[in-house]
Structures
1.
Amino acid sequence: MKAHKEIFLSFIQKYSNSKLVIASHSNVDLDALCSAYAVKSVLPKAVLAFPEKMDSPAQSFCEHMDIEYEPIEKLKPADYDGLVVVDCSTYVLLKEAKAWKGKVLLVIDHHHKNENMIEGKENIRDEDAKSTAEIISTFLPSFTPDVAFALSVAIISDTARFKSGKPSTFVELARMLELSGKDYKEALEFAEPELELDKKASVLEAFKAMHISIRSGYTIATVEVPAHESLVSSSISEFADVAFAANWRGEAKETRVSSRARKSVPVMLNEVMAQVASEYRGSGGGHPKAAGCSAKEKPNKVLERCVEVLAEKLENVGVEK
Ligand SMILES: [Mn+2]
């Protein structure tokens, strides 16, 4: 989108000498990390800052590329000129941004609108984009090989190796790889690294513990897990049409659900998650095929409700046909 590109280019010109902070969502993934890193390449005085943990593919890539960042909660808004948020539009995943109210200068994201929206002075939202990295790759006026490589890795990772992608996604990947001087295999190794032993074991345990139901011709798997709910839901959805993995967070007294659907499923999971969350005083959203929610209720009840809400929506699809 041309208008978006113009917003971005005049932004980097205006703030080229400013002390900005570039942040993203908690449980930082490759799209978040690499998008922030790429934006920093054109805002030389900016620092990267992230909340809590980083997922392990992002962690290894961050170490490999020697990318430096600060824990965002340690930074004082008064010491900086403003905040740029990438790959995130919700305070749920970046609660630290609340301290920056009025200083959020720019948001660049591809997630759906939600009720806890982070609104920047400028907002570049493209829900059609399959990654934030591919939005940014179309904007940047120049690339170092490292930035192009990081964007390649993020595009491969956030599309789940092209489970989603529009023609421009492939164009941008090809362009970034060429600019990086590296080949696809090398990017793929960072985008989809081999899992650690404990994670492989959790996925296999989850397969053993899951419950399976069939509604309107679709297989639905639910499971309660002690950790790694998004890894579990994405792994199970290699086979089940829809997977819901729930984890009980004792400190917060809430359940976190991660859900994934195969591309044949005609229901939008972000809507299912938003509905379940609203019934249990939580928040939910995400993408049609990959979504999540929090809920102030025990995991077994929340999972039951996830299946019911999904089943109702599946039946309604049948009716409309
Ligand atoms: Mn993303």
2.
Amino acid sequence: MAPMEDVTDQAFRLLCKEFGASMVYSEFVSADALIRSVNRSLEKIRVDDRERPVAIQIYGRDVESMVEAARIVESEASPDILDINFGCPVKKVAGKGAGAGMLKTPQLMLNITREVVKAVKIPVTVKTRLGWDHQNKIIVELAEQLQDCGIEALTIHGRTRSQMYQGEADWTLIGQVKANPRIHIPIIGNGDICTAEQAADAFDRYGVDAIMIGRATFGQPWLFKDVRTYLDTNKHDDTMTLDWKMDVLKRQVRTSVAYSLREDNALKECKRTELGGIIHVRRHLANCPLFKGIPDFRQTRVKILRAETQEELFELLDEARNRIMDFENN
Ligand SMILES: Cc1cc2nc3c(=O)[nH]c(=O)nc-3n(C[C@H](O)[C@H](O)[C@H](O)COP(=O)(O)O)c2cc1C
């Protein structure tokens, strides 16, 4: 499962792990905030043994802070992997030279990578994009250079920074990196995988060692189960009934609320409430693919996005289930 800020907290990671994600990633953690012991960052690097293998991802803009943050992650959390984010396109990160901003300063990117690899004993990996923009798709050469810094795997999201999340992910350069005879580290392909068929196709066409799935997990954490079954048997997982899926969504609500209410939760005050957990989970539910194509579902979706209690959400999920059944029976 892909790292996603405000999405892949421990509760969601454990759920996806249970449904077959081979590896899960934390939300990205700011190196500077971690060094300052900001509560939210300390919360993000907390790892539960049940989610292993798990990667903690950090981002930052200079060698010293990245090395220090890497050491903190290793000593405080002992994740299986330390991942470096050189792919985040948002202005407050890339605009300051971190994340995908490093695609403009590849020498600094390589220095950070080399020094972080030297500073910790756990494996270090990198996640990045094709390049800064259409004219600067540097990934094929960059992949070799990153490998030479000692990283143990590379994830490539098939877009440039300029594309943000627009257009379609272009996997051809991911395939070229993988086909490069000099590359011996695992290459993880990422971008726009939404179905088991697309997952299988990515392996077949581009030869990648693994795929990373992000947005398609919204409202269907069971996607990993289907992908896994499909990769193994070429058939979809037909054991997952509608009622089973609705129960999973209710469980997701419960775990999100429980996670938000944890006594040792270091998250900011407003999240330490039932509402914190509800706010976190409701956009997942509103995006659930099961609700696509149901006539006049908009009102229900809006109600889901405005719900403030578990009971409200459970009632709306029951209503949604009945609407799906009616639709399928007609
Ligand atoms: C809400 C959201 C938050 C994200 N946060 C991160 C992050 O913290 N670190 C990171 O490397 N990528 C982050 N990404 C990018 C995803 O990991 C992934 O590269 C991207 O969504 C493309 O994959 P997909 O098409 O499967 O979603 C984020 C994406 C979304 C939609």
